[in-house]
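Fold in tokens:
===
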Amino acid sequence: MDVTKIMLTEKEMPTSWYNILPDLPEPLPPVLHPGTGKPVTPDDLKRLFPMALIMQEFSPERNIEIPEQIQAIYRMWRPTNLHRAYGLEKALDTPARIYYKYEGTSPAGSHKPNTAVAQAYYNKAEGVKRLATETGAGQWGSALAMGCMLFGLELKVYMVKTSFQSKPYRRIMMETWGAKCVPSPSTDTKAGRDVLAKDPDSPGSLGIAISEAVEDAATHDNTHYSLGSVLNHVLLHQTIVGLEAMKQMEKADAYPDIIVGCIGGGSNFGGLVMPFMRDKIKGKKKNLRIIAVEPQACPSLTKGPYSYDFGDVAGMTPLLKMHTLGHTFVPPPVHAGGLRYHGMAPIISHFYKLGLIEARAELQVPVFEAGVRFARSEGILPAPESAHAIKVGIDEALACRQSGHSKTILIGLSGHGHFDLSAYDEYLSGKLKDYEYPEEKVKEALTSLPAVPGA
């Protein structure tokens, strides 16, 4: 009998996160203080983050133990299954062997709780009472709402307006778990009011929402800021996905030739690929291809320069060395809200600079076509973000059909699309539109890149 689901028991769940920093062939460029231009210190960040997370951000330790209280909550849904996509293979008539690691079975429906639970735990341990955060499509806001509920923390979520309007059930999920959610840009912060003064109809962006959340945290006592992607400690927490996948691929007596994941800020992609990346860096699997997929409407890796930039519109964050479209860039309102970020995680940007990963940018309509194809062969309706990875996974499988080579492909399926039915309705009714690369808007935004002496 063919095995469709490769499962781990709870006892087989990893008990440590994997930190790739000590294994990088070249160290990451430092994070810089926006005022001094010098590398940030832990003291510079303690107003926003608990010290435990700050230490993880810069840790030289390869393995960082997952506290038992976090492990106990993880066991509500972890380990997640690795699936063999027999239905998709048959539909494509490909000799490729396709696997996907499915994170949509978490209570929030995506990979985001892997770090949300950890961040809530460390903030609670430091005595913090309240968190402020941003969210794009609502997956991160939902996950952190769940994490804060489990640890008794208050939460304020600034949700990108275009997603707030198109995904009302994400907001309801956050509010059910006790969070307060407002559309961003909002009138609750100076950063939001400044944007609205210039553009009352602004669709919002993750960069704007981050500015609002950072300002909220900086102006309220007992409040910290929480970020769902980009930073090292966030990607660290997500490595439980890749660590499980490695064990499951071993059980399946297979190893991927190609790994594909979607990228917005980089946490889902990084969490899946970094444990495998170690094998590539060490020469154990030097021919492993790792492909990051982003929307053509917001192509930070494929089009953005590798430069120091702010993580937010208002310039309140430290300066990160990353591929960026400029922190003032507001992407078109594509349905993959979680991928509408102007920058990219420094670790992922570093991989790209070193030639360790490939990157592709895809249009919205072909992505939804791939999502529907997947749903009709595998039964799972993927999130629009995840459908980007599926699109390229299908392309690679079809290339195998053309060449006659049987490759093993691993796809990161980061969440389900149950809250994205209106977007699928647009596609199925022929109303979905594509957004090309907004070159002029990017050129304008790139003029806002900060000058960093010596960088």
Residues 232-251 form the longest helix (20 residues). The mean pLDDT is 95. The chain has 18 helices and 15 strands.
